[in-house]
Amino acid sequence: QSALTQPPSASGSPGQSVTISCSGTSSDVGASNFVSWYQQHPGKAPKLMIYEVIKRPSGVPDRFSGSKSGNTASLTVSGLQAEDEADYYCYSYAGSNTVLFGGGTKLTVL
Amino acid sequence: QVLLVQSGAEVKKPGASVKISCEASGYTFTNYAMHWVRQAPGQGLEWMGWINIGDDNTKYSQKFQGRVTITKDTSASTAYMELSSLRSEDTAVYFCARGTTLAAAAPIHWGQGTLVTVSS
To answer: Closest partner residue to B59 among A1, A89, A97, by Cβ?
Structure first.
């Protein structure tokens, strides 16, 4: 099982929107509604931002949204803020009680 | 509140084993599962495996099959991850993360991480 494919980097200016993609296969992202997104700041544990493709845990700003089309999931961050600068990882169920992470995307707020 | 407290940093020689603990509090331990995830320096997150605490069902990533063992002690509300035949590439921060009985569900609560350094 290979990691899900994410762009290594993304960037945007404050107030802008940025979308990060997560490409998988018909055995993981394409087959599952259990696609999630994590935010990780340096030296910290990951924080769940989106789960089950589109849902936000309590306390996560509605500037963060998720979607999925076919084998590709996406995370969109609207109204970029300085504190959004972090690494973002997608996560997908891959069948047989296994999960996969994406390789991670470093989001820079210019 | 849910709290996962992991054991401290370890330094191991190549070929050795390491066993990391993750003590849970703030919830009913047996009603949930525990994932183990690692992150090598400057690298991404890597899922290692999962244990459903209630029924002891485990599942490991193919990459670690044969080298990793995840166990639990319900009397101590503690989960463990043991990795054997360590090599330098196993140098990483290892996280436990509370999951649900559904392996697919993304964990919300994470431990603070345990740094394992493998060096001769």
So the answer is: A97
